[in-house]
Amino acid sequence: MLTSVAAGPTDAVVRTVAVLDAFRGPDQLQLSEIAERAGLPMPTAYRYLQGLVRAGRVERIGKLGSGAYALTASAHQQQARPFEDLPIRIADQSARVVGSELVKLQAETGQVALLYASVGVPPMRMCTSWAMGVHRGTLLTAPTAQLHALWQAPLDADASGAVIRAFRSTLTKVRAPMPEPRPAAARALDLRRIQEQGHATAAAPVEGWQAIAVPLWCASTVAGAVTLLAQEHLARNVARRARYVDRVMDTAGVISRHLTRVDVRCAV
């Protein structure tokens, strides 16, 4: 999870999502439980909870100071229908840059552009912004389980999470690839292989799509991933897939440079 001495827009997104992610279904949680699940100090968790209460996403149950918190009905609906509306708003300046770059990536490739942040304890990857273009209708009619997995999943679930794991491991020793043959899916998500290539490519959670993911940086910290969701029959073409990779890397580079300027002090 990202932390900083003076929280910038990226930190605010990650912390707010972490607090929301602490709630699992209809849970009623004490502040201490929310702070523990979100991996935040209690004063920080309390501050973000109050913002979510004011925004109508969380409600207080019981007396002030001793009561619990729970998701509101509208927040439950958002959990049930991911991608219906952006769950967390990135601060204005960063939102403009992220939105513009994702729309540009989507328009230039004709595919779907997604941005993921790493949130919660244990860490998950969660989609915080996207540009779907003409594919919106198709994606939103995918099976609910697949759509939820595309929206939020553990870091070891797919290419988007694997690229975050791989580049968080660059300062530590990553095991060498196993010498015996392995399935293609396992090879695609091998952390050392991802580090060498600078990106991860593997089947997406939604059937019929491939995910091409590139790390998103804030200074020397991995802040998340930029992912292109490409139609499988198009991504099979080697030359086209290489062009997709180049465009995702360009987009991640622009957003990373912006985040580094805005959030100067970032740490894991």
UniProtKB/TrEMBL annotation:
<keyword id="KW-0804">Transcription</keyword>
<dbReference type="GO" id="GO:0003677">
    <property type="term" value="F:DNA binding"/>
</dbReference>
<keyword id="KW-0805">Transcription regulation</keyword>
<dbReference type="InterPro" id="IPR005471">
    <property type="entry name" value="Tscrpt_reg_IclR_N"/>
</dbReference>
<keyword id="KW-0238">DNA-binding</keyword>
<dbReference type="InterPro" id="IPR036388">
    <property type="entry name" value="WH-like_DNA-bd_sf"/>
</dbReference>
<dbReference type="Pfam" id="PF09339">
    <property type="entry name" value="HTH_IclR"/>
</dbReference>
<dbReference type="GO" id="GO:0003700">
    <property type="term" value="F:DNA-binding transcription factor activity"/>
</dbReference>
<dbReference type="InterPro" id="IPR029016">
    <property type="entry name" value="GAF-like_dom_sf"/>
</dbReference>
<dbReference type="InterPro" id="IPR050707">
    <property type="entry name" value="HTH_MetabolicPath_Reg"/>
</dbReference>
<dbReference type="InterPro" id="IPR036390">
    <property type="entry name" value="WH_DNA-bd_sf"/>
</dbReference>
<feature type="domain" description="HTH iclR-type">
    <location>
        <begin position="10"/>
        <end position="73"/>
    </location>
</feature>
<dbReference type="GO" id="GO:0045892">
    <property type="term" value="P:negative regulation of DNA-templated transcription"/>
</dbReference>
<protein>
    <submittedName>
        <fullName>DNA-binding transcriptional regulator, IclR family</fullName>
    </submittedName>
</protein>
